[in-house]
Amino acid sequence: MTRFARRARAAAGRMHPELSLVAYTLLGHLEEVGGCRATDLAAHYALDKSTVSRQVAALERAALIERRVDPDDHRVQLLHLTDAGRTILDRVTESRRAAFRERLAQWPEDDLERFADFLVRYNAWPPPQDD
Predict the structure, then answer these.
(1) Could you tell me the pTM of the whole model?
(2) Three-state SS for 42?
């Protein structure tokens, strides 16, 4: 797992050296939800608000995200991807997919299916509580 995390951080750094793996994760979440508050990001990822604040500032300086007034509550600012942010995120996503395709190209179908099942199980932790 440590090796996996190191590779992910290294790949993120190669795509845009000023941004961390956390920053890429935040970009992906913003794309997925269509924008949200910084406090929502902190809550979703169980991160300290100051950590998210530093990451958001770096993303803003890099012009990858922008703040927009919430149309439902003008006191609130929502974070959204810019076109440049979407481009970087798309590039990272394609780079990761290509790396996965290359690494898994020689795996037998049965192994790929087992691996996928294990990943689903791993990502489902903690398991749902029985009522």
Answers:
(1) 0.74
(2) helix
